[in-house]
Design the sequence.
């Protein structure tokens, strides 16, 4: 009997089955079936449990570690795969504690995120550098095409503005010959009218003064009725009329009567009305002349044509003068309207006694002489010269 066995409590006898306890039957093996020795397969080696890497902490905008700091030299050192794995634990307590500790280190060391990521890679390869996402454009924001289009439109507007300033000479004030509706007063409601009237539109001879913008200088009384025109002798005959009175008005309504005539002058941009009256008391003839400064030849054409329809309801007012001219407009009279560029010239002649007819040669000659306005003819000559 072995002494050690006695200390263990053995008696040296073979074991005997205890009553009431059933022993398991012997398992039948391949050796018992075939009679030969059984080949025992080598024991399977348990695969090492890989630790699941801890998820990275949430990124903070513009808080990434620079690339040269994230990739360290020790990240390329060879590592033992088994050494990186924790020892096996049935309860898995050590693995969980390792992950918890690794999460804490990752949160405390955001600046050393590169080392934390490279330490858990079993392959030993360096981690790829992280790329910063490009700032996304806000939805619905203006694209580059819109900016370029707006810049092009702005450039065109600037060029147009510069061109307008250059054409206008850089002066914002209206020019004297600007085409605008003139503000005239209210003309008289009644007045005299001639017996007959005719009109003619402007011709090519007055093309140089077709617009007041090309001839902006205002008229003067001395220009319209110069000293050289103080006496108008007729080519044939003994009649010679002399200038008895003259006047220049800035309100054209003073030179006409009738609402429709005044309205036409306002539309035509009338800014001046010059009037004069002549007479030959010896032979009993008289002549009234009126010159209107309008915006353009079209306005002058329209005004002289309008007077054909307003006889008896509106016409040019003869300038007042002492007797015997105070009776001008009574009896038979002949009138004629001429458009001469942007000017309208109206001449009106009659006998002082109110007699006569259309066959009177002196009346016809006076109409022609009255239409030869020296101021208008001189401007037309300078405009075409």
Sequence:
């Amino acid at each position: 009997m072995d002494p050690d066995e006695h200390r263990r409590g053995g008696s040296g006898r073979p074991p005997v089955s205890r009553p009431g306890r059933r022993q398991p039957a012997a398992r039948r093996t391949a050796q018992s079936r075939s009679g030969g020795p059984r080949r025992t397969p080598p024991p399977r080696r348990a695969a090492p449990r890989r630790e699941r890497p801890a998820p990275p902490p949430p990124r903070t905008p513009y808080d990434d570690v620079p690339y040269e700091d994230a990739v360290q030299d020790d990240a390329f050192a060879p590592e033992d795969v088994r050494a990186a794995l924790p020892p096996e634990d049935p309860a898995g307590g050590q693995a969980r504690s390792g992950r918890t500790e690794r999460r804490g280190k990752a949160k405390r060391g955001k600046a050393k995120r590169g080392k934390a990521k490279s330490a858990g890679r079993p392959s030993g390869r360096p981690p790829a550098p992280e790329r910063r996402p490009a700032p996304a454009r806000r939805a619905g924001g203006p694209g580059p095409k819109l900016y370029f289009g707006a810049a092009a439109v702005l450039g065109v507007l600037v060029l147009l503005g510069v061109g307008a300033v250059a054409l206008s000479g850089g002066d914002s004030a209206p020019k004297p010959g600007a085409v605008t509706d003139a503000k005239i007063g209210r003309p008289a409601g009644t007045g005299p009218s001639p017996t007959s009237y005719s009109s003619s539109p402007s011709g090519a001879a007055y093309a140089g003064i077709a617009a007041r913008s090309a001839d902006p200088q205002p008229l003067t009384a001395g220009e319209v009725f110069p000293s050289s025109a103080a006496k108008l002798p007729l080519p044939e005959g003994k009649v010679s009329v002399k200038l008895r009175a003259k006047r220049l008005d800035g309100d054209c309504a003073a030179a006409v009567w009738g609402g429709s005539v005044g309205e036409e002058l306002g539309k035509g941009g009338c800014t001046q009305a010059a009037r004069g009256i002549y007479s030959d008391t010896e032979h009993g003839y008289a002549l009234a002349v009126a010159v209107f400064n309008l915006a353009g030849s079209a306005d002058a054409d329209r005004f002289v044509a309008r007077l054909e329809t307003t006889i008896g309801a509106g016409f040019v007012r003869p300038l007042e003068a002492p007797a015997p001219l105070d009776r001008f407009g009574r009896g038979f009279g002949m009138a004629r309207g001429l458009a001469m560029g942007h000017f309208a010239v109206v001449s009106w002649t009659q006998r002082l006694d109110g007699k006569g007819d259309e066959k009177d040669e002196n009346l016809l000659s006076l109409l022609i002489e009255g239409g030869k306005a020296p101021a208008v003819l001189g401007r037309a000559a300078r405009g075409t010269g």
